[in-house]
């Protein structure tokens, strides 16, 4: 049949047997689940064996690109990788969550699509280090012995780009570093040297002896209605480029996190370039060059400037070059910076308080401002030496080794949900839907939705994050304009001066899920404003590209269907309401004050208690009511957090109704 938007093939690669096969994409499944993460979840139901260890050779990596990826749709550079994660979500019971990591890519997603594949499934374990080469129809498992243990992520990516580039056209590369090779749990696999496809994925690639995937495609993507599509793409592009916010600098001044070593003007002085993902008009990734000091000449190639600034603030570095050097070092190693800095920050605190000594940490002096000690801990962690062997296994194991429960430390605890450190701290931002999502999703991850960005230019102020500027009216406007709610839903969620966080997260989550299915970025970096996280706009693009006419409510239902499939996969692994647990530090903060960081990045500073978005102090009962409302809005059983049979039938998922 003719495919539009979709290219019609799923690529299967078995690293154990060396078998490579290509199967047609079921178009009815594509229509039902939208593409990307949605189809990934449906494939995962058949391919991921319940309760099997994530590090088993049979446990698959399922990669999917959406129907808008590879077209001129703005912000269409996202790739979804669905896996069972190898970390345990609980200290008392081994349960491994299934989830999709969504990564922004400069080229990888578009190259996979242009090579002729909507999805790729990788299983097995190679006998020796390897990489997968995809050049259109030419797919091969290649020897990576010359790269394994010898080349970091940047070096690996550069080498494979040079090997397979076609004239001026470079391939996309997904690669791991030493952390993934040595099976460090909090490890990353970077895409195109720029962004992560998700935390802890480096471990899974390493467990398969898979160093990288390199992909170059030349076939193109067919569009059902080129005239309609080009009109939509042109109009949306003009809307974006003429908007006042596109002219505001992304990560200006590093997004807060003031520190002694980072004067306010350093970003403008050292930035030497910026780069965006495919079809994105807001370059997110900074090139920053250290121009003086000990690390002069170090070039930051990945992430945004707020990351090295955060390191400088947390570790109290005295020179901006140390923050940039650490960022570069961690990315080359493929080490998850969030998990790393939270563990190191806690260790420094214990050292400063005399609770641990230098003997506990390899004779290091864990003093604030000591860059060498922090970098040495990273080396020890990726090489699994001394205290690094325990850190490599994750925060739970580090706590057990030291005999101290960090989650009881309201000030320096890691803030963990389902076995991973949270990216955003609700104690400092307020518990809004994007933070609440860390509790109800399979694992905490970087995601954006209602309450994260102002919806229009009229309330723009010159600060990086909208935390102090956003208002109740921004949230309501964003909800009404981008998430296609009914009048009944609006009335149920919004009162005159506040909103129901649990109920709102259901709709915000469905909207982000649509983006993940179609291959759209949910944080197109136009500073405080995302013009593509918009259901009506995406419905028009989807209809023009695929030829399947799609109303807004129908498209939103696809996002909801994917969310329920995600939940069903985790229910099958044994997850229920008990696992949707708030980090212990947040619970402590309902009764004990927490001293927030002195930072423009966050809403509040000084001593504070846990509040909602509007500043209302929350109790533990309030948090449980938030869960009740979320489940009720989703049509899930409030006692178990499991989708009801009625909801599954409504979503066309009746085949997954459990037979009593």
Quick structural overview:
With 660 residues, the chain is α+β, with helices and mostly antiparallel strands.
- The level 1 CATH classification of the largest domain is Mainly Alpha
Taken together, the total number of domains comes to 3
Strand order of the largest sheet: 2-1-6-3-4-5
Measured distance between first and last alpha carbons = 40 Å
Helix segment tally:
24
Q: Using the alpha-carbon principal axes, give the shape.
A: globular
> Which topology of the largest domain does CATH recognise?
Aldehyde Ferredoxin Oxidoreductase Protein, subunit A, domain 3
Q: Give a count of the beta strands, DSSP E runs of length 2 or more.
A: 19
The oligomeric state is single chain
- What's the architecture of the largest domain in CATH terms? Orthogonal Bundle
Largest sheet: 6 strands, mixed
Mean pLDDT, all residues: 89
Low-pLDDT ranges: 250-255, 452-469, 598-602
Strand-pairing-aware structural class = alpha+beta
- Report Rg: 23 Å
The portion of residues forming beta strands comes to: 5-15%
Helical amount among residues, as a percent range? 25-40%
């Amino acid at each position: 049949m003719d495919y539009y938007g979709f290219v019609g093939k799923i690529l299967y690669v078995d690293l154990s047997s060396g078998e490579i096969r290509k199967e047609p994409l079921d178009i009815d499944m594509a229509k039902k689940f939208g593409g990307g993460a949605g189809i990934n979840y449906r494939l995962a139901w058949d391919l991921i064996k319940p309760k099997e260890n994530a590090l088993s050779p049979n446990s698959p990596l399922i990669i999917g690109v959406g129907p808008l990826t590879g077209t001129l749709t703005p912000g269409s550079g996202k790739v979804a990788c669905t896996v069972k994660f190898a970390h345990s979500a609980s200290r008392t019971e081994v349960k491994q969550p299934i989830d999709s990591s969504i990564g922004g890519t400069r080229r990888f997603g578009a190259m996979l699509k242009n090579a002729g594949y909507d999805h790729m499934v990788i299983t097995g374990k190679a006998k020796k280090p390897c990489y997968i080469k995809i050049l259109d129809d030419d797919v091969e498992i290649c020897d990576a012995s010359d790269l394994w243990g010898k080349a970091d992520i940047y070096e690996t990516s550069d080498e494979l780009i040079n090997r397979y580039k076609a004239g001026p056209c470079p391939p996309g590369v997904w690669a791991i570093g030493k952390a993934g090779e040595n099976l460090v749990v909090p490890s990353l696999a970077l895409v195109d040297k720029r962004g992560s496809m998700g935390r802890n994925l480096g471990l899974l690639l390493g467990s398969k002896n898979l160093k990288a995937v390199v992909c170059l495609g030349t076939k193109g993507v067919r569009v059902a209605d080129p005239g309609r599509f080009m009109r939509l793409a042109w109009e949306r592009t003009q809307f974006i480029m003429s908007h006042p916010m596109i002219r505001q600098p992304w990560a200006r001044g590093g997004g807060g996190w003031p520190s002694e070593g980072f004067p306010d003007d350093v970003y403008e002085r050292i930035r030497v370039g910026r780069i965006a993902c495919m079809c994105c008009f807001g370059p997110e990734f900074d090139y920053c060059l250290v121009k003086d000091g000990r690390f002069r000449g170090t070039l930051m190639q990945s992430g945004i400037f707020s990351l090295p600034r955060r390191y400088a603030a947390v570790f109290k570095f005295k020179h901006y070059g140390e923050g940039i050097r650490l960022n570069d070092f961690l990315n080359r190693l493929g080490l998850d910076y969030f998990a790393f800095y939270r563990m190191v920050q806690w260790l420094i605190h214990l050292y400063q308080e005399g609770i641990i000594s230098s003997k506990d940490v390899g004779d290091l002096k864990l003093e604030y401002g000591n860059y060498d000690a922090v970098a040495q801990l990273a080396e020890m962690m990726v090489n699994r030496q001394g205290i690094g062997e325990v850190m490599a296994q994750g925060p739970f194991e580090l706590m057990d080794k030291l005999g101290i429960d960090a989650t009881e430390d309201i000030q320096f605890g890691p803030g963990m949900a389902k076995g991973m450190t949270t990216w955003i701290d609700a104690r400092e931002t307020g518990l809004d839907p994007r933070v609440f999502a860390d509790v109800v999703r399979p694992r905490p991850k970087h995601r954006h939705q209602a309450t994260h960005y102002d919806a229009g230019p009229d309330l723009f102020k010159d600060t990086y994050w909208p935390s102090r500027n956003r208002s109740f009216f921004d949230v309501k406007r964003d909800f009404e304009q981008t998430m296609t709610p009914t009048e009944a839903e609006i009335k149920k969620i919004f009162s005159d001066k506040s909103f129901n966080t649990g109920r709102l997260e259901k709709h915000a989550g469905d909207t982000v899920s649509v983006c993940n299915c179609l291959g759209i970025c949910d944080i197109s970096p136009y500073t405080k404003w995302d013009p593509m996280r918009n259901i009506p706009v995406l419905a028009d693009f989807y209809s023009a590209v695929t030829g399947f006419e799609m109303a807004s409510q129908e498209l939103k239902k696809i996002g909801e269907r994917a969310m329920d499939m995600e939940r069903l996969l985790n229910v099958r692994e044994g997850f229920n309401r008990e696992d949707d647990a708030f980090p212990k530090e947040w619970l402590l903060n309902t009764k004990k004050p927490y001293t927030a960081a002195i930072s423009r990045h966050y809403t509040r500073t000084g001593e504070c208690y846990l509040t909602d978005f509007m500043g209302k102090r929350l109790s533990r009962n309030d948090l449980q009511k938030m869960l009740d409302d979320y489940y009720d809005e989703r049509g899930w059983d409030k006692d178990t957090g499991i989708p009801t049979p009625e909801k599954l039938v409504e979503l066309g998922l009746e085949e997954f109704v459990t037979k009593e």
